[in-house]
């Protein structure tokens, strides 16, 4: 039974992280709308979406030749 649960968890993790083009966990979508040429690298080669998001960064692997894990735009601060 434990082996079955392990393989199920492994399958879910593999399906959940494969081919996801955009991940914005904990960030607004607008913060991650960084033009490709303006992206500032935020991680190491072959970083996973989860590892990238754990660093507080955006992940988008849909464009080759630019960082896939990059620093988000800063939200505009409210002024009163």
Automatic annotation (TrEMBL):
- Return the Gene3D superfamilies for the record: Spasmolytic Protein, domain 1 (4.10.110.10)
Q: Does the keyword Ribonucleoprotein apply?
A: no
**Keywords in alphabetical order:** Cytoplasm, Disulfide bond, Extracellular matrix, Secreted, Signal
- GO-annotated cellular components: cytoplasm; extracellular space
- Taxonomically, the superkingdom here is Eukaryota
Cleaved signal peptide residues: 1-21
One of the GO biological process terms: maintenance of gastrointestinal epithelium
User: What does the function comment of this entry state?
Assistant: Involved in the maintenance and repair of the intestinal mucosa. Promotes the mobility of epithelial cells in healing processes (motogen).
Return the protein name.
Trefoil factor 3
Q: What taxonomic classification does the UniProt entry list for its organism?
A: Eukaryota, Metazoa, Chordata, Craniata, Vertebrata
């Amino acid at each position: 039974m434990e082996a079955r649960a392990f393989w199920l968890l492994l399958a879910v993790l593999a399906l959940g992280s494969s081919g996801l083009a955009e991940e914005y966990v904990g960030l607004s979508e607008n913060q991650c709308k960084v033009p490709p040429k303006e992206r500032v690298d935020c991680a190491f080669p072959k970083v996973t979406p989860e590892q990238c998001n754990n660093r507080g960064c955006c992940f988008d692997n849909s464009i080759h030749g630019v960082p896939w894990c990059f620093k988000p735009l800063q939200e505009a601060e409210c002024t009163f």
